[in-house]
User: Which sequence fits this backbone?
C-alpha cells in the first residue's frame, strides 16, 4: 500500500455540498409583499410589526418564543409591564441547565445566535418576572408567536433575537380572528398544563439567586384545538402532529410545483411518509424546490440535503435563511419547525397556519425570489477548488479570518489511523482551536494535532468536541503521509 499520496484542488469529494450558484441574480428587497412581514437585507418589517403588536395590546399580551435576547424587543415588553395595566404572559424554553442552549438539538440556534450571550435570555426572563410578567417555560418549546388581546395572532419563524430580527431571512404572518382564538387556546393549554417550569422566585438575602419550581407536564389531547376547527396547525409531542400532516397534504396534492423552505434538513430517515411523498411528487413530474441555509459545516444537514437531491429535488441556499414554509399551486403554510425527523415535526411544540390566498401568493413570490437570488446551489461530486472558492466568499461575508488558509501542504498520520488518509480525500476537513490546542476534524472524527509551519502532525483520536472554533482546511496541493 502506498503510504504517501498527493491531492490537488481538482480532486472530487464524495457526497454533495452547497457551492457557488453561478446563475444567481442581483439581490432585490421584497418590500412589496404586503401580507408578509420579513427580515432580510434592507428589510426589517418583521421587527417593526412585532413592536407594533406589543404596543397595541390593551388588556392581555401573550408571547411564545424559544429565546428572547433582542434588546429593543425586551425593553418594549419590559416598558409595557412597567407602564401599563396590560397582563403579559411569556412562554419560553428552559432546560435542567436553565439556559444551556448547547444541549438543545432541535434548531441548534443559528451560528449568529450562538455567538451571542445566551445567558442574556435567562437574565431577561428574570427581569420581566420581577416586573410582573407571568413567565412559564417548557423543555420542548420551539414555537414562535404573539397574541394581542386574544384576537390578534401572529406566527413567525424568527426567534426574538437581534440576528433573527436584523439580518436572518425570516417571515411572519397574521392569523384571522378564528385562527387567533385557537392559537390563544393553544397558548393557554401549554401555559397551564404543558409547562415544566412554573414559578420563579429570588432569595430574600440574595436577589441574584433565582429559584425555579419544576413540575411534570399534565397536558391532554382534549385541551388542544382540533385541526378541523381552523387553519391552525401544530406539533405537540405525540398528542398532535397536524403540522406534519399538512406538509404531507401539500406534497401529495401538488400537480406542478412544491416550494419548501427550512433552516436545516436532518434526520429524514425518521420521516418515511415525507420521503415517500417527495418520491411521488418527482414521479408525477412535480418540480420540488428546497431553500435552506447552505451549511457545509454540518454533516447531518448535508446528508439530508443529499437525500432530497438524489430523489430529484433542486436545492438552493443562502448565508442566513431561517424562514420555514411549504406551498404548492393551491395551498401553502408557514410554520416554525425545520425539516427535522427528530425535533419539531413529530415531537416538541411547533406551530403553523394555512395561508390565505393573498398570503400564499406573496409566499410564492418570496420563494421564487429567494431561489433566483440564492448564493448557493446544492451539487454532487464537486472538486475541492469549487468548495474552497465557495468558502472564500463565505468567510468574507461572515468576516471570518481563517488563519489556516492554503498554508499547510503536508499531513503526517499515524499508521493506526490510516483510514483518515482516505477520508481527507473524500470529505471536508477542519482545523479546530481551543486556547492554542489544535484539532483536526474530518468526517465527524476529531484528532489532536500539532501544527508546525507548513506541516500538520496528527495525534490521538478524541471524542467529538461540539462548538469548537474551527476553520476549513484549504490547500493548493496536499501531501498526506502515513507513518
Assistant:
Amino acid at each position: 500500500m502506498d503510504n504517501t499520496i498527493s491531492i490537488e484542488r481538482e480532486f472530487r469529494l464524495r457526497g454533495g455540498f452547497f457551492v457557488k450558484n453561478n446563475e444567481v441574480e442581483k439581490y432585490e428587497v421584497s418590500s412589496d409583499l404586503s401580507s408578509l412581514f420579513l427580515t432580510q437585507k434592507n428589510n426589517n418589517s418583521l421587527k417593526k410589526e412585532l413592536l407594533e403588536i406589543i404596543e397595541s395590546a390593551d388588556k392581555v399580551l401573550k408571547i411564545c418564543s424559544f429565546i428572547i435576547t433582542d434588546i429593543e424587543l425586551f425593553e418594549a415588553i419590559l416598558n409595557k409591564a412597567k407602564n401599563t395595566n396590560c397582563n403579559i404572559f411569556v412562554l419560553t424554553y428552559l432546560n435542567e441547565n436553565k439556559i444551556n442552549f448547547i444541549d438543545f438539538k432541535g434548531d441548534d440556534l443559528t451560528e449568529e445566535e450562538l455567538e451571542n450571550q445566551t445567558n442574556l435570555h435567562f437574565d431577561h426572563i428574570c427581569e420581566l418576572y420581577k416586573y410582573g410578567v407571568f413567565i412559564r417555560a417548557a423543555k420542548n418549546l420551539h414555537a414562535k408567536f404573539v397574541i394581542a388581546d386574544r384576537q390578534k395572532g401572529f406566527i413567525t419563524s424568527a426567534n426574538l433575537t437581534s440576528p433573527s430580527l436584523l439580518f436572518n431571512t425570516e417571515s411572519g404572518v397574521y392569523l384571522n380572528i378564528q385562527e387567533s382564538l385557537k392559537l390563544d387556546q393553544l397558548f393557554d393549554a401549554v401555559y397551564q398544563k404543558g409547562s415544566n417550569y412554573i414559578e420563579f422566585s429570588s432569595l430574600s438575602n440574595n436577589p441574584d439567586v433565582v429559584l425555579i419550581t419544576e413540575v411534570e407536564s399534565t397536558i391532554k389531547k382534549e385541551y388542544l384545538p382540533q385541526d378541523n376547527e381552523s387553519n391552525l396547525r401544530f406539533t405537540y409531542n405525540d398528542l398532535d402532529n397536524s403540522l406534519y400532516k399538512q406538509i404531507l397534504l401539500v406534497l401529495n396534492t401538488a400537480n406542478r410545483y412544491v416550494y419548501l423552505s427550512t433552516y436545516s434538513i436532518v434526520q429524514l430517515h425518521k420521516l418515511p411518509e415525507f420521503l415517500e411523498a417527495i418520491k411521488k411528487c418527482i414521479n408525477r413530474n412535480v418540480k420540488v424546490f428546497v431553500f435552506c441555509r447552505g451549511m457545509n459545516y454540518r454533516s447531518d444537514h448535508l446528508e439530508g440535503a443529499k437525500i432530497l437531491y438524489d430523489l430529484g429535488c433542486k436545492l438552493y441556499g443562502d448565508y442566513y435563511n431561517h424562514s420555514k414554509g411549504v406551498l404548492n399551486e393551491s395551498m401553502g403554510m408557514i410554520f416554525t419547525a425545520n425539516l427535522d425527523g427528530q425535533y419539531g415535526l413529530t415531537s416538541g411544540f411547533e406551530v403553523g397556519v394555512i395561508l390565505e390566498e393573498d398570503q400564499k401568493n406573496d409566499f410564492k413570490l418570496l420563494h421564487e425570489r429567494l431561489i433566483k437570488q440564492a448564493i448557493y446551489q446544492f451539487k454532487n461530486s464537486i472538486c475541492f477548488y469549487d468548495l474552497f472558492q465557495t468558502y472564500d466568499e463565505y468567510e468574507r461575508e461572515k468576516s471570518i479570518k481563517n488563519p489556516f488558509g492554503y498554508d499547510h501542504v503536508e499531513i503526517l498520520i499515524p499508521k493506526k489511523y490510516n483510514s483518515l488518509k482516505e477520508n481527507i480525500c473524500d470529505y471536508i476537513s477542519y482545523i479546530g482551536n481551543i486556547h492554542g490546542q489544535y484539532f483536526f476534524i474530518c468526517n465527524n472524527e476529531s484528532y489532536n494535532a500539532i501544527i508546525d509551519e507548513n506541516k500538520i502532525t496528527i495525534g490521538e483520536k478524541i471524542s467529538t468536541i461540539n462548538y469548537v472554533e474551527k476553520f476549513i482546511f484549504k490547500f493548493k496541493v496536499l501531501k498526506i503521509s502515513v507513518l
Notes: The chain has two domains: 4-13+396-482, 25-374. The chain is about 30% helix and 30% strand.
